[in-house]
UniProtKB/TrEMBL annotation:
SUPFAM superfamilies according to UniProt: DNA/RNA polymerases
InterPro entries in UniProt: DNA/RNA_pol_sf, Rev_trsase/Diguanyl_cyclase, RNA-dir_DNA_polymerase
Record's protein name: Uncharacterized protein LOC107459092
């Protein structure tokens, strides 16, 4: 199974979907595995959506435990549209929280 995972990781690296980070304190893919590889009908190990349509899975519970919760959640789109009703152009710039833009038919 280790060879299947190594082959899949190398495929993703070659097409620049993933890349190595040597100076990071984060552990994105835990060293003890935690990556699920599924067997298909032919008893082959499949780590991606190739034959079975099932994705390669990574257990992010340790990463989630280290991540801070966002206490500044974005409002629901229906709440934003209600507040924007009657205006012709909608653009919000905020240096701290980022940029939101909603396209509206005129």
């Amino acid at each position: 199974m280790k060879e299947v995972i190594q082959k899949e990781v190398m495929k993703l690296w070659e097409v620049e979907i993933i890349y190595p980070i040597s100076d990071s304190l984060w552990e994105v893919v835990p060293k003890k595995g935690r990556m699920i590889v599924i067997k298909n009908e032919k008893n082959e190990l499949i780590p991606t959506r190739t034959v079975t349509g099932r994705p390669m899975c990574i257990d992010y519970r340790r990463l989630n435990n280290a991540t801070r919760n966002d206490h500044f959640l974005l409002p629901f789109i229906d709440q934003m549209l209600e507040r924007l009703a009657g205006h012709t152009f909608y653009c919000f710039l905020d240096g701290y929280f980022g940029y939101n833009h909603i396209a509206v038919d005129l």
